[in-house]
Amino acid sequence: MIAFLLCKVAFCSVLLLHPVHETYSEIEWNQDSRCCEVAMRIHVLDEQWMRRSIEADIDSGWELDYLRKHVVYDRSEAKTAELTSSDGKPRYTGKPIRWVGRKVEGAYAWWFYEVDCKDGRPPKTVFSNLLFDRESNYHHQFVLLGQKSDTGKDPSTVLSQQHPEKPLKLAVGKEE
């Protein structure tokens, strides 16, 4: 009986300690500024891994460059040699990303940034290969705020290594 209880405790402990490999992002179209405002939640251990993987100092402002290399809105493959990374992998271009800031809440860091949409239209797609080199089972959930699905909930899309790019269906409000 004691062996059975110990096995149950050990099994439950494994389930509780199993790491969750996911980022969670809330994205909202701001009609006035003509940009998408994004809040991305990342586990601080993953954030530390990202910083160490590029050998950046803590306060060096590394986040924006890292983000621009791994998360792209309305992606297109760069055609010029200077936009190819040193490891020979293609870099992608897309709508510009502007860093807003960072906030730590417990085990998570929130990254705040804006996607600049000079054409006045929100991005149609999002691509992310963020943290796939750390864990191939990583998932990136994007929740579209201010939109409602048939169920009344904010619609979302999930990116994975198998599906790193998906459409975004952000509605543009009426012009005033």
Task: Note down, in words, how this protein is organized.
The protein has a six-stranded mixed beta sheet. It has a three-stranded antiparallel beta sheet with strand order 3-8-11. A two-stranded antiparallel ribbon has the order 4-5. Helices cover 20% and strands 35% of the residues. With 176 residues, the chain is an alpha+beta fold. The chain has three helices and eleven strands; from the N terminus they run αββααβββββββββ.
Distance from N terminus to C terminus (CA atoms, Å) equals 71 Å
Low-confidence stretches: 9-18
Question: What global shape is seen?
Answer: globular
Strand content: 25-35%
Secondary structure tally, helices: 3
Order of SSEs, N→C? Answer: HEEHHEEEEEEEEE
Helix content: 10-25%
Sheet having the most strands: 6 strands, mixed
* Residue-averaged pLDDT: 81
- Rg, rounded, reads 19 Å
Number of strands: 11
Strands in their spatial order, largest beta sheet: 6-7-2-1-9-10
- Specify the structural class: alpha+beta
Quick structural gist:
By secondary structure, the protein is of the alpha+beta class. The chain contains 3 helices and 11 strands; from the N terminus they run αββααβββββββββ. The longest helix is centred in the N-terminal third of the chain and has 16 residues, at 2-17.
Fold topology:
Elements: H1 2-17, E1 22-30, E2 35-43, H2 44-53, H3 62-70, E3 71-73, E4 76-77, E5 92-93, E6 97-105, E7 108-116, E8 125-128, E9 139-144, E10 156-160, E11 165-167
Parallel strand pairs: 1-9
Antiparallel strand pairs: 1-2, 2-7, 3-8, 4-5, 6-7, 8-11, 9-10
